[in-house]
Amino acid sequence: MKLAEALIERKALKDRIKNLEERLDRVAKVQEGDRPTEDPTALLQQIREALEAMEGLVAKINRTNIAARFGDRTIMEAIARRDRLTAEHRILRRLAQEATPARDRFARNEIRFMPTVDAAEIQRQADAVARDLRDLDKEIQAANWTIELTE
């Protein structure tokens, strides 16, 4: 199995667990004299089985990410860099947005706020980080389809 296939399976398991949780919530209690539409014990067992499958799959994915190399780094190192770039991009975008002067003064005697950074320059930096992030993500996605999952 390719790493990408395992990631798709992990997503499906997460969705299944969420769905089972929602169904369990709906049958956790019923009006006195009524019966639940599904057996809560059976749903709980299905959740446990899905969680066990998830545990095994995540362990395999993590082992693969630590061991598999592409270029001069491991997949795990590339994911850590992607996470950093994602956070940096979010912060730069927010800073550029906050530093953009708003037109919210109604009278001359109201307080005027001035940006402390060059919003256009910060936006250029955010755009550069976004480009790096997209490029890295494409590399990771491509590698995921070539790397075999570690057992």
Summarize the structure in words.
The protein is mainly α and 151 residues long. It folds into 2 domains: 1-67; 71-151. Helix content is 69%, strand content 3%. The protein has 4 helices and 2 strands; from the N terminus they run ααββαα. The chain has helices at residues 3-27, 40-67, 75-99, 119-144; strands at residues 69-70, 73-74. A two-stranded antiparallel sheet has the order 1-2. A hairpin with a 2-residue loop joins strand 1 and strand 2. Helix 1 runs antiparallel to helix 2 and helix 3 (75-99) runs antiparallel to helix 4. The protein is flat, with a radius of gyration of 24 Å. The chain starts with a helix and ends in a 7-residue tail after the last helix. The model has no long low-confidence stretch (mean pLDDT 93).
Write out key terms for the chains shown.
single chain, 151 residues, mainly alpha, 2 domains, two-stranded antiparallel ribbon, 3% strand, flat
What would you call the structural class?
Answer: mainly alpha
Shape: flat
Q: Could you tell me the number of beta strands? A: 2
Give me the Rg, rounded.
24 Å
Uncertain regions spanning at least 5 consecutive residues: none
Main beta sheet, described? Answer: 2 strands, antiparallel
Order of helices and strands: HHEEHH
Sequence of strands across the biggest β-sheet: 1-2
How many distinct folded domains? 2
Measured as a percent range, the helix fraction is 55-70%
Mean pLDDT: 93
Gap between N and C termini: 10 Å
User: How many helix segments?
Assistant: 4
Strand content: under 5%
